[in-house]
Amino acid sequence: MTTEEAVGKRRGLGRDFGFLSAAYSMQTLGEGVLVTALPLVASRLTSDPKLISWVLLAWELPWLLLALPGGLLVDRGNRRLLMIGAQGVQMLLLVLLAVAVSADVTRMWMLYVLAFGIGTGDIIFMGASRALIPDLVPHQDLEAANGRNMTAETLGRNFVGPPLGSALFAFLLPLPFWLNALTYLVSVVLISRIRRRPVRTAPAPERRSLGAELTAGLRWLLRHRVLRIVVLLAAVSNFCVLMGQSVLVLFAKEVLGVGDTGYGVLVAAMAVGGVVGGFSSRRVVLRFGARAVAVAVSLGGALSLLAIGLFGRQPVVVAAIFCVWSTGLALWNVMAQSLSQRLIPEELRGRVNSATRMICFGALPLGAFAGGLVAGSLGLAAAWTVGGAINVAVVLAAIPTLLRWPANAVEEEKAR
């Protein structure tokens, strides 16, 4: 059997999705390497925590500034070519930085430019890849497709990439960036193997103002009775978990009593649930349905944050409790992505997905800011307790709405 046939036969999701999933795996592995390499380089250039924090800020800022126009581009352009272009630009930026690091001429502004470029490329790549999945696999296989990608993301970004980036950084400084550039090159090659999709048969949209086009996805999302509550709960969850995670390194050292090495082990252990959830997500979502998963995951995740604040005083206890949250995150992402892909009109997929991520990701820095204030005033554990309490209150208020959802995927599609 050829490599192409092997990719195509994987779990029966088709040749084209096999290449798309492999490209996504390479992309997430590369970002996992970059997650550790960029801060390490920044720490060699400056000891100013504000300047170092701006690297992450530059990475996240495109989601607030460019998510809506990025979604419009995904809806109006060739999604396959957009993915190739985005990964190509990201690869070029990484090569330029690798050269600068090799020549020992790196400056902080270069890291900011790279981070902003990577974040901007992610808007296009992730938006186009998620909008393309329903064109590559049957609707009944969306949970399997999204579950595979979720597992690949957890493994690459949380397990393999970060320690690999640290090891390469310690061995020879430019290596993480050269490897990251290589992963994007492989991704481009894989995406190029996807067969060209047929020209869309949907009628051409009527001409509207640029503002109306940019906000069409956001307005559609806010009007949809099911998806708007999904996005609200995801944004609240992101806000509340970042309240605790923003001070996790101090919580681990001062409350749990672990050192630098123990902290890395703790972070990896806390992410184990994401792998479990990714592998089991398809069976769980299909067995119980989106409604049951939404209720159980949102309530279980909120309670787990509260439990860490109230009872988490040992590393093993905190890791075990947080695995409830990370397992739920994997299940939620597969459920929400599959649901969105079924419900969003084809011509709006890019813009609605971008609007969704703008709202959900925009809650992350706000939660981190709030967590710092709470921890500074009430103590490190209070950041988890207050975050969990807020999350529980919002979920309890939302449960009546969740229980009015259609019970299964067929009814969900009829509810469009």
UniProtKB/TrEMBL annotation:
Localization per record: Cell membrane
CDD domains of this UniProt entry?
MFS_MefA_like
Record's InterPro entries? MFS, MFS_dom, MFS_trans_sf
Q: Which domain of life is it from?
A: Bacteria
A GO CC term attached to the entry: plasma membrane
Its taxonomic placement starts with: Bacteria, Bacillati, Actinomycetota, Actinomycetes, Pseudonocardiales
Organism (species): Amycolatopsis vastitatis
What is this protein's name? MFS transporter
| Residue span(s) of domain Major facilitator superfamily (MFS) profile | 16-409
Q: Name one Pfam family in it.
A: MFS_1
